[in-house]
Specification:
Layout lengths: L2 H18 L39 E3 L5 H27 L7 H28 L23 E2 L6 E3 L9 H19 L9 H24 L4 H5 L7 H19 L15 H20 L7 H29 L4 H15 L8 H26 L7 H19 L2 H4 L5 H29 L6 H6 L1 H6 L5
Helix pairs in contact: 1-14, 2-3, 2-4, 2-8, 3-4, 3-5, 4-5, 4-7, 5-7, 5-14, 7-12, 7-14, 8-9, 8-10, 9-10, 9-11, 10-11, 10-12, 11-12, 12-14
């Protein structure tokens, strides 16, 4: 059976699973992904007494209703998550490519940060995090925050007012929008690891732009907006296992298949340029991930503390799991292996971090470390695709492992909900199928118009010189 047939069969199986168990009584809706307050807050009433906002009305509160502690923590978390992309992910990826492609790889992360920032301002935030209307309200938000219109701070003579999101009522909406922007930035940047060394820069910019609006924003809305289709079904995703990692991972797989293998893949040696850069990048990712997971509490509270602890435990366990699996398999533990294992643990604990305790986090991390090692080595070789930096093997597979194990280990005492593996399959299956199909279509359209891949001469010369006119020397 060909690689294409195997992958299509796997996708069809994932699509069928949620439908088979759609009416299972054990798949009862659970709490929302990041456990937001019950409703918006106003200067006259507490959050629990307020009604959900309409699609067009802003939530304006007095400045005295804003928590200084929550705001300070979310500002810090936002900076930590942005650090994950630049410089964290940029260095992590750059150290693994060949010397002739280091600058081009750094450029991809930096440019992605810039272009997604502008798109988030234009319409991305509104589509992802405002209530929708009509038959599509479960799948995409409205346009009330087009150009971030209505997001305001009003300085009055006697009373200062500002807008808040109905998903985070104790911090200014500007802070919440900025925090979520950093998630929207790193998700498409992760995909770049799959097509490293061979995609045109112009094609990459178009792909990332379209993908962030037609794939990322709808999935974020479905999972995290209280009226979102997957949220209503009870799918649990605390900080982005489906929205970020499965989403990016399955798009990475689509990229590998459409672009094809690198010239010389499997025949020529392709040693990483500098594993010191990769190690520094992985370390920055580890530290920044505390903003990613603990920041998803939206407040400086007990859940943020538990998410931080769970993140640390799972990451350490996964790094050891990958290290020992590699040690047993190849006879030696590598720096690249332990760093990759740590990232796999960070990925897997992301959907569960606010729903599980430290013991469950260790188990999730150990499983993810071993499974992702197998996916990045044996599975990739068996299926024959060229995932340059294992974006699918680590983020796609790690995200699926974490999402499903969230259903196993979610603690009602911590999350207020009981997890369900069958419910989690809805989130996994929807993200895999929608993300793969739409990503594949976008890539094919670009390929048929401006072309996706650099020429053979450019690839052999290296993208640093051929695309950017620069080199490390």
């Amino acid at each position: 059976m060909s690689t294409w047939c195997r992958l299509v069969c796997a996708l069809m199986l994932l699509l069928a699973m949620p439908a088979v168990w759609a009416d299972d009584p054990s798949a009862a809706p659970a709490s929302t992904a990041a456990a937001p307050p019950a409703g918006p807050v106003t200067s006259e009433a507490p959050a629990s007494a307020a009604a959900p906002p309409g699609p067009t009305e802003p939530i304006l509160v007095g400045a005295d209703k804003i928590s200084a502690g929550d705001t300070a923590w979310m500002l810090t978390s936002t900076a930590l998550v942005l650090m994950m992309t630049i410089p964290g992910l940029a260095l992590f990826y750059a150290g693994m490519v060949r010397k002739k492609n280091v600058l081009a790889t750094l450029m991809q992360s930096f440019a992605c940060t810039c272009i997604v920032t502008i798109l988030w301002w234009v319409i991305g935030y509104s589509w992802a995090f405002t209530p929708g209307a009509g038959v599509l309200k479960g799948f995409i938000g409205g346009s009330t925050r087009w150009l971030m219109n209505g997001m305001s701070f009003v300085h009055g003579e006697t009373d200062n007012k500002l807008t808040v999101s109905h998903l985070a009522v104790t911090i200014p909406e500007t802070v919440y929008a900025m925090f979520q922007m950093t998630f929207a930035i790193i998700t498409p940047a992760l995909i770049a690891g799959a097509f490293a060394d061979r995609m045109k820069f112009s094609a990459m910019l178009i792909f990332m732009s379209v993908w962030s609006l037609v794939v990322y924003a709808p999935i974020a809305h479905m999972v995290w907006e209280p009226t979102g289709w997957l949220n209503v079904k009870g799918v649990l995703d605390y900080a982005g296992g489906t929205v970020v990692h499965i989403n990016a991972g399955i798009a990475a797989l689509a990229s590998c298949l459409v672009l094809g293998k690198r010239i010389g893949y499997g025949k020529e040696s392709m040693p990483p340029y500098n594993l010191s850069l990769t190690f520094i990048g992985a370390s920055l990712l580890w530290v920044g991930w505390f903003g990613f997971n603990a920041g998803s509490a939206g407040a400086a509270d007990g859940r943020a503390g538990m998410a931080m602890l769970a993140t640390q435990m799972a990451t350490a366990a996964a790094a050891l799991g990958w290290m020992f699996a590699e040690w047993i398999s190849k006879g030696k533990p590598s720096v690249l292996g332990i760093a990759s294992g740590a990232v796999a643990g960070l990925v897997a604990i992301t959907p569960a971090s606010g729903f599980v305790g430290p013991t469950a986090a260790v188990i999730i991390g150990l499983i993810a470390g071993v499974v992702c090692y197998i996916a990045a080595t044996s599975l990739k070789h068996a299926l024959g695709y060229d995932d340059s930096l294992d974006a699918f093997g680590v983020h796609g597979i790690g995200g699926i492992v974490g999402a499903l194990l969230t259903g196993v280990f979610a603690s009602k005492e911590i999350s207020g909900s009981e997890g369900s593996v069958l419910t989690q399959l809805w989130g996994v299956g929807t993200t895999v199928v929608y993300g793969f199909i739409v990503s594949y279509v976008i890539l094919i359209v670009i390929d048929k118009t401006i072309g996706l891949r650099v020429t053979e001469e450019q690839e052999r010369q290296g993208l640093d010189i051929s695309l950017h006119g620069e080199s490390l020397e």
